[in-house]
């Protein structure tokens, strides 16, 4: 019902929204999940109402992501999927205050064992970058925190997660302050284009080390975490990533690297 344009004719829409919001405290996980789905569907049925009630809808989605009684993350998954639908219709002022909290909250889901959680959290992260201008420096830090993960998950075993990573990286490119990197993401990470991963990563690392040589040790440490990934292709991609970083960094910046830690792979 809420997904249909007929809601524009319903004088009971606000009452239904209040009831859906109230169901977020329901003891049943499925009820809480479906309540969020209904609220998210307002983006299709009545986008003008999303603008009017943006702060309330956003609070519901954030509460869903923070649901403490959600062992399989069903509520969090629905909250992320619904928020991605709502974002195009929310006022920027409503999302700005919650931008950092949401970005930090969804970051652990990038490596979830559940592919739907990986895909939805990464797509949402890409969508959040549309609102990063006002918090450019703060959100840039979140992009750097997620960059290695997004690049490695281009080797994810699930095609839908790879597609999500391509989208998120294309969205992140303009905020990175490196024209060469932005162009690479836009040109090589199109959905309809196959990717030669090794060649792509070689060029990405060249741009990273030209623009952010001070990031070398941070990028290496994040990659070391993935040496023990459950996915073989990602385990293989991490040392290759490090190799290309070291290959393209200048001699002075190499002093950042803890060789003992790198050799031990820990």
TrEMBL record:
Q: Which residues cross the membrane?
A: none
* Source organism superkingdom: Eukaryota
UniProt-listed InterPro entries:
ARM-like, ARM-type_fold, HEAT_Maestro, Maestro_heat-like_prot
Q: Which is a Gene Ontology cellular component entry for this protein?
A: cytoplasm
What Pfam families does the database record attribute to this sequence? HEAT_MROH2B_C (PF23227)
- Gene3D superfamilies reported for this sequence: Leucine-rich Repeat Variant
Query: Maestro/Maestro-like HEAT-repeats domain location, by residue?
Result: 18-264
Instruction: Quote the PANTHER family the UniProt record gives.
Output: MAESTRO HEAT-LIKE REPEAT-CONTAINING PROTEIN FAMILY MEMBER 1 (PTHR23120:SF44), MAESTRO-RELATED HEAT DOMAIN-CONTAINING (PTHR23120)
What is the protein's name according to its record? MROH1 protein
Instruction: List the lineage, top down.
Output: Eukaryota, Metazoa, Chordata, Craniata, Vertebrata
What's the name of its gene? Mroh1_0
